[in-house]
Amino acid sequence: MAAKKYPNFYYKDCVSCSICVQACPVGALDLTRAGKSGRYRNLFPELVNDRCIGCGLCAGNCPMECIHMRSDYEG
Prior knowledge:
Layout: E1 5-9, H1 19-23, E2 29-37, E3 40-47, H2 57-61, E4 67-71
Antiparallel strand pairs: 1-4, 2-3
């Protein structure tokens, strides 16, 4: 049996488009305020671990390719 995969976010490249949140079939991603860019606050995806099913739809739909799936043991 393959190890469960989880999304790993590279926020530096994230444009806060929320496509990943919309693509998640189980609502395992929420947008959370984090950081500040000029006078605007950026919103970044945050994983709700117990909801994630490891499907990879968030990573597959990210237009900036800033989400990569990792095995649960990769830390």
